[in-house]
Amino acid sequence: MNALDEYSEAARRHGVPEELLGRALRLARPRIELRAMEDSDAPVGGQYGGHPELPPDVEWDGFPGFVASVDCAAVPVGELDIPLPKDGRLLFFANNSEPSHVPGPTKEGGVVYVPAGTVTTECVPSEENASYTCEAYPLRGRLDWFMPDSNNEVADQETVRLIHPYLRDHVDETLNGELTLGGYASVIHGDPAPWPAADDEALILLAHADYTFVDTPLSCAASWLIHPRDLAEGNFGNALFHVQAYM
User: Fold this and answer.
1) Which numeric CATH code is attached to 3-246?
2) How far is CA 224 from CA 10, 39, 45, 159, in A?
3) Which of 75, 97, 143, 204 has the fewest other C-beta atoms within 10 Å?
C-alpha cells in the first residue's frame, strides 16, 4: 500500500463518503515528513540541529540558527509535486531568537543548497550565538499525503469545507515532523503560500518547521517559501522566510 492508499484508507475509516473522497484526493498533496522516528526502519534522510556542513565560501557565525539539513538522495523528492534536486543537500536556517515584527516573507531565514560532491567543512557558531543551536540528531523521512484545512487558500474551498469535519482526527494523527518538505503550509494567522501558485510572483511552500524561540516562551510555525521560477532554476538563494508566532 502506497502513501496515497494509506491516506484513502484513513479517510474511509473516518467515514468520508466515496464521492467526497474522490473530490478530496484531487486536493491532497504529497509531502515528506522528517522525524526522529527512532523505532522506524526508514532511512536517515537528514539532520536536525547541530552544526551545518557548508562550502568554504558560505559564511555562518551561528545566526540565523541552523534548523535542519536534508539529503535529497535519501528521501523520495521525486514523489513531490514541486521540483527539488535529486541529490545534494538542502540546509534550512531561521531566526529562532524572537518573533519577527515584519509582516510577510522576509530574509530572516534562508536555504542553502549544497550540490553532491561539494567539499564542505563543519561550521561552529560563535560563543555569542551558540545558544541558537540545538543538539544534533538524525531525521528519518517518509512520504505522506495531506489535505488543506479550512485556513488554507485553495481554489476548491467547497471541498475543503465539506471534508474538514471528517478528517479532524486524522490531522491530529499526522502532525508535522521536525521538518516537512512540500505540501500545504500550516496556517496560524494567514496562508503564506496559497495553492496552486497563480504566477511567477506567487510563493510556493518549500519546507515547514515548528520550534520554540530561544529568547521567548513563544513557539512558531516557520515556512521557507520560494518563487516558482527560482525553484525551477534551483536558485535557493532567493528563498524567503515566513514566521507565525503562537503560544
Assistant:
1) 2.30.320.10
2) 29, 29, 19, 27
3) 97
Report the candidate in 118, 71, 130, 95 with the shortest Cα–Cα distance to residue 209.
95
Q: How many whole angstroms separate alpha carbon 76 and alpha carbon 45?
A: 9
The identity of residue 216, as a single letter, is T
Residue 84: closest CA among 184, 182, 179: 182
* Sites in the chain below the pLDDT cut of 50: 171-174
CA distance 43 to 240: 29
8 Å CB contact between 222 and 105:
no
Report the distance separating Cα 6 and Cα 11, nearest Å. Answer: 9
Which 3 state secondary structure label does DSSP give 207?
strand
pLDDT of 65 = 95
Distance of alpha carbon 142 from alpha carbon 55, whole angstroms? 28
Judge contact between 17 and 128, C-beta under 8 A.
no
Question: Could you read off the pLDDT of 131-172 as tens digits, one per residue?
Answer: 999 999 999 998 888 888 888 899 888 888 887 776 655 544
Residue 157 makes CB contacts below 8 A (sequence gap 6+) with none
The three three-digit cell numbers of residue 77, written as one number: 523528492
